[in-house]
Amino acid sequence: MTAPLLSIRDLTIAFGANAATRNVSFDIAPGETLALVGESGSGKSVTALSVLKLLPPTARLSGQILFKGQDLVTAPPADLRAVRGNDISMIFQEPMSSLNPVHTIEHQIGEVLAIHRGLRTSAARARTLELLDAVGIPDPKSRLASFPHQLSGGQRQRVMIAMALANEPDLLIADEPTTALDVTVQAQILVLLKDLQKRLGMAMLFITHDLGIVKTIADRVCVMTEGEIVETGPVAPLFARPQHAYTRHLLAAEPRGTPPASDATAPVIVEVSDLKVWFPIKRGLLRRTIGHIRAVDGVDLTIRRGETLGVVGESGSGKSTLGYALLRLLPSKGRIVVLGNDLQTRSWKAMRPLRADLQIVFQDPFGSLSPRLSVDQIIGEGLAVHQPRLNTVERDARVVAALQEVGLPPAARFRYPHEFSGGQRQRIAIARALVLQPQFVVLDEPTSALDVSIQAQVVDLLRDLQQRHGLTYLFISHDLKVVRALANQLIVMRDGKIVEHGPAADIFAAPKSDYTKTLLAAVFDIATLTPVASP
Amino acid sequence: MSTVSDTAQAPPRRRWLSPINQRRWQNFRANRRGWWSLWLFLAFFVLTLGSEFIANDKPIMVSYQGELLFPAFVDYPESRFGGFLGAPDYRGDFMAEQIAANGWAIWPPVRFSYSTVDVFQPGSGAIAPTWMLSREEACQRYPLGVDDPNCNWSNYHWLGTDGQAHDVLARLLYGVRISILFGFTLTILSSVVGLVAGAVQGYFGGWLDLIAQRLIEIWTAIPALYLLLIISSVIAPTFWVLLGILLLFSWVTLVGIVRAEFLRGRNFEYIAAARALGVSNPTIMWRHLLPNAMVATLTFMPFILSGSVVTLTSLDLLGLGLEPGTPSLGDLLFQGKENLQAPWLGLTGFFAIAILMTLLVFIGEAVRDAFDPRKAFA
Fold it and tell me: Which long-range contacts (CB under 8 A, 24 or more apart) does A245-252 make?
């Protein structure tokens, strides 16, 4: 084996009294892809940033970061700048915020070329075009003068990659480069990275929390938890025979289980026909409506008691809007019949008695709980509205019961949301919905903001609650793995319309529409995708 | 209800403040300057609230023929003390003799109220503080001169007198009190109106917001001072009238911030969650959104308060403020301007306002620090 390109020895990074990483050591050989896997807070991003010494000044480093034999920990700033962007470059998670919104694409890529290679004007432009072509941006010439906001998320990430590759680095550090992207785009970017890596022969340090990506892209894996690397090894054997307990836990954490079979004779709980949510586009001085964004455009669906209808689609497909419109949190057109009541004819006030039966759980457990109310107040709020006759003792008993239902101790009700972890907060949000004993619950990406192992727990909890109380779910998610574990009926949405509709098992086994096929392939089988980038 | 007793363990001692507010309180206290300013300000304020006990031309308590009377709080007719006229002049010879013959009196340390004219002051017009004069000078107008028992420290003018022979210290105490009370009332009222207006605009948005915002823009374009000039020439400007007029213009200060907070806040998921629970709009605004807006409001309050005090002072200085004769800081400054030979008037007014403003600004800074989210949530 050749000498390692990057060699990290006993790296300890501390912020104040808290160590973010402890004695981290690993090597990357030239041309190799090493994946650093861990859940949020495991110290994987901090490790990646430390390689280029991009950490905030409060961080204290000890140990060695040897790049081609030079220790970057002790290197003077001038040497570091020569390495950054030239020998080692980096791609970040958020393509939205890692490009400067006031500069054109040409300017941003040209800057890197000018700094490290001294390329100017025509030479820089030629190289920029070459790079944009390499990362698969169609018609690169016309894109030179574009600003970041004129590109899609996937295109922005391609531009970021082009910038990172501008000087043909020896090592590319990719910090969750696909997390913020839709699944189909995610697959394209991964294929692109893999392809480019082969062609340019660079090494890659790939940071991710997604084990599916690791399987397809990496040669070797380092599993990190709580600032320590607990297991290292080549991908295939490590996935087949995990040694460390945490690795086993992580691998077992993928949402599993199957939804209960649906009963075709059960009464219909929700019936929607020709539901439309159109947002007007207003232009000009008089703000005249010149068109509509058709967020939800003519959706029909029925949900029977005890069923889970999964709604999948990429961002902007209108799936969350559909959930909001169903509960009349957004104005819409079309018929919505829930539990035999036509919701559209009801005023906001007349909706109130029905709301106890219709509940919603949101995506972001940090945003959906008011930081200023105790858990007791948060869960008890709905009871105060719908069952004002309850006295304090009875209400307390109901809050305690709801907390126990979601697996939290009764004492949790005296605490405030910020004292809980993401998974616990999502449990509180579920308890808030359940305390009213609803019949129908809209779950709007309830697991998307959570770590994988927590995701699995929440999925199990939701399934368990459904069986115990005969709940009916509308489960909105972009994560097909989670949907497969929960939904027995499925609709696939794109641009506000239903692309495919049917029993979940059938769709997963034999998708009919092309879009569904791409979507499924992007999640379950990245390797089979052909490179979309130009050769 | 055995299940309840099983699970309902004793709740932890409910603190008066939520954890976030506790941290804010800690942050406030950590700003030593603001912390001391708060105590000094409160001390001054409490002191001026008790102005009647410090500077008054009536005794606090009188024992007259074995009966306990409280002239500082109750208006007794002079007939009560064996006289004939309506209101007794406790500083006069007749009352002094009556009380001395039939009991005793407890006087406040300064025997002048804000409107008391000192007939024994040496000379006419504004007279320098008594401690700057020799005893002969100070007592020259008393009937018995230097030997007069009334020429003692309780009849001294510690800060001199103004052009109408009023005691400056007494006027300062009462003036600061009226300034702070006026400021507080105006601040609270304009905050309440501003909060309600901003909350409604921000929460409901749309046309309501659009129209209200334009109206506010037109409203703020009206020159308030000219309007005040016109109104004060028609209506006698009492405390409440003046408060009402200033309120007409001061409520807009907070609308912008509160509206912005509500506009931002109404898209939070916990607001959507509350709507999905069927919580009514007023309750959502009160319980979920108002706490967000309170941070901005409380941060602004000390500055609105100091602004209100300054506004009242400047109106009084221009003679457009409170009724003539009312003690106020503006009137003190006006007297100082009219009597340039008596610097104690202007200096007293200047230092009173400067210290008051400084304290309020320091408190405001500390409040702002305390509510700084980077510190409160750190």
Answer: A247/A223, A249/A453, A250/A37, A250/A39, A250/A211, A250/A223, A250/A452, A250/A453, A251/A211, A252/A456
Using a CB-CB cut-off of 8 Å, the residues of chain B touching A373 are: 287-288
Cα of A127 to nearest chain B Cα, Å: 44
* Cα gap A429→B315, rounded to integer Å: 55
Average pLDDT over residues B95-123: 84
Question: Which stretches of chain A drop beneath a pLDDT of 70?
Answer: 1-2, 95-96, 284-286, 525-535
Q: Which of A363, A400, A414 sits opposite B7 (nearest CB)?
A: A400
Residue B275 near chain A (CB below 8 Å): yes
Residue B320 has pLDDT above 60, yes or no: yes
User: Would an 8 Å CB–CB cutoff place B157 in contact with chain A?
Assistant: no
Per-residue pLDDT averaged across B54-79, rounded? 84
In chain B, which residues have their Cβ closer than 8 Å to the Cβ of A385? 277-280, 283
Mean pLDDT of B296-300: 83
Query: Mind giving me the DSSP string for A449-484?
Result: TS-HHHHHHHHHHHHHHHHHHT-EEEEEES-HHHHH
From chain B, the residues in CB contact with A432 under 8 A are 273, 277
Nearest to B228 by CA among B240, B241, B211, B215: B241
Specify the pLDDT at position B10: 53
What's the predicted TM-score (pTM) here?
Answer: 0.73
Mutate to test the interface with A, among B22, B203, B269 (most CBs of A within 10 A): B269
**How many CB atoms lie under 10 A from the CB of residue A196?**
21
Closest CA to B61 of B48, B71, B75, B49: B71
Taking contacts as CB-CB distances below 8 angstroms, the residues of chain A near B275 are: 329
Selected residue of A348, A349, A381 to mutate for chain B interface (largest B Cβ count, 10 A): A381
Task: Give me the helices (H) in A118-232, please.
Answer: 121-134, 140-143, 153-165, 183-200, 211-217
Mutate to test the interface with B, among A370, A392, A393, A443 (most CBs of B within 10 A): A370
Task: For residue A151, give the DSSP letter.
Answer: S
pLDDT band with cut points at 50, 70 and 90 for residue B11: low
The complex scores an ipTM of 0.71
At A248, list the tokens.
């086993």
Could you write out the three-class secondary structure of A232-259? EEEHHHHHHCCCCHHHHHHHHCCCCCCC
d(CA B262, CA B200): 8
Position B14 scores a pLDDT of 57
* Residue B63 tokens, joined: 């024992």
Q: What tokens were used for B70?
A: 């409280």
Residue B110 DSSP one-character state = B
Per CB-CB distance under 8 Å, the chain A contacts of B288 are 370, 373
Q: Do A370 and B275 touch (CB under 8 A)?
A: no
Strand order in the sheet with A268-283: A288-304, A268-283, A333-338, A341-342
The token duo for B38 is: 């708060």
Q: Which residue has the higher pLDDT, A122 or B37?
A: B37
Confidence of residue B3 (pLDDT cuts 50, 70, 90): very low
